[in-house]
Amino acid sequence: DSGVTQTPKHLITATGQRVTLRCSPRSGDLSVYWYQQSLDQGLQFLIQYYNGEERAKGNILERFSAQQFPDLHSELNLSSLELGDSALYFCASSYSGQGLGEQYFGPGTRLTVT
Amino acid sequence: GQQVMQIPQYQHVQEGEDFTTYCNSSTTLSNIQWYKQRPGGHPVFLIQLVKSGEVKKQKRLTFQFGEAKKNSSLHITATQTTDVGTYFCAGRTSGSRLTFGEGTQLTVNP
User: Fold this and answer.
1) CA-CA distance, B58 to B49, in Å (whole number)?
2) Which of A33, A35, A41 sits opposite B102 (nearest CB)?
3) For a tag on chain B, would you pick the N or C end, based on fewer CB atoms within 10 A?
4) Is the pLDDT of residue A104 over 80?
């Protein structure tokens, strides 16, 4: 158990819909990272927040947005969903905002768009 | 942008054989990390390498960071069935972003 929690574990929705994925970082960690992993693919970095502020942005689509709240939990919002958005979405946390040290990954949310 | 390439994509070995995965970056890295993801699981941090030419060992696992800090390798000696999974390297240039390689999926036949 990494200490990072993600809800829900599974999500099935239809094209065009909007969903929200939730992540609670490990106690004491200030950074939250979001990654997308498609079937048998690597981890695509989406976005990082550090202590409530956006720190780094990766290949995140305009239809996707995220935020980190004062209690440090984070939400990833995916809208106008397409079939190609079906993937595992991982949240990771770390204490550092500089990318040093390990990232602790949550169990992931498996999103299926039908 | 920064690219991190990993080979091979798949590796099948008999239990007891050695295994190596290689990671190459298009740019010089400030550090590199390795993660393992078991089937159906999430990535788990293995190690971080920072110094040019650094070599670190964890039991049967040996990690190397190239002299030019553009490549790295993970070598497993005498694989066991518990080594099954996908091994990812992740490199950082500047800033806080890690770029992950595509991973090497290791299967071990008992």
Assistant:
1) 13
2) A41
3) C
4) yes
- Has residue A43 got a pLDDT over 80? yes
So what's the pLDDT on residue B2? 73
pLDDT digits (tens, 9 = 90+) for B31-48: 999 999 999 999 999 999
Q: Tokens 């209690």 label which residue? A: A71
Q: What is the pLDDT of residues A31-42, one digit of tens each?
A: 999 999 998 678
Distance CA(A2)–CA(B89), nearest Å, equals 19
Task: Provide, as residue numbers in chain A, all residues whose Cβ is less than 8 Å from the Cβ of B43.
Answer: 43, 90, 92, 103, 105
Q: How far is CA A29 from the centre of its chain?
A: 15
- HEC string of B43-58 equals EEEEEEECCCCCEEEE
Report d(CA B102, CA B9) in Å as an integer: 7
pLDDT of residue A39: 80
A98 has pLDDT over 90: no
> What CA–CA distance (Å, rounded) separates B88 from B90?
6
CB contact under 8 A, B103 and A97: no
Q: Which of A90, A66, A92 is nearest to A79 (CA)?
A: A66
Q: For an interface test with A, give the residue of B42, B100, B102 to mutate (most A CBs within 10 A).
A: B42
Q: Are B15 and B108 in contact (CB under 8 A)?
A: yes
Task: Report the alpha-carbon distance of residue A97 to residue B50 in Å, rounded.
Answer: 17
pLDDT value of residue B33: 96
Distance CA B108, CA B97 (A): 32
Write down the residue that tokens 């299967």 correspond to.
Answer: B107
